[in-house]
Amino acid sequence: MANLDWAQCPAVESIPGKVSGAWVLRGTRTPVKVLFENLEAGMSIEEVIEQFPVTREQVDSLMAFIARSLDKAPIYG
String of b and e for 38-60 (b: at least 16 CB within 10 Å)? Predict the structure, then answer.
């Protein structure tokens, strides 16, 4: 995911001075990285929504963006 162009994802924003400019879900202070760390640790999407100030629509939009990125052909250096 390090190669994703997060600026193209409508569900997220990065604002200098807000959470040190980290990519967060739009309108929140919840970093995208934290959501993925918790999902990787075994939390379900429902648990993430309960624990963080995010909506199902935000998470669905984020996941759809990532899924679309997987459709692109890989770039080999």
Answer: beeeebeeeebbeebebeeebbe
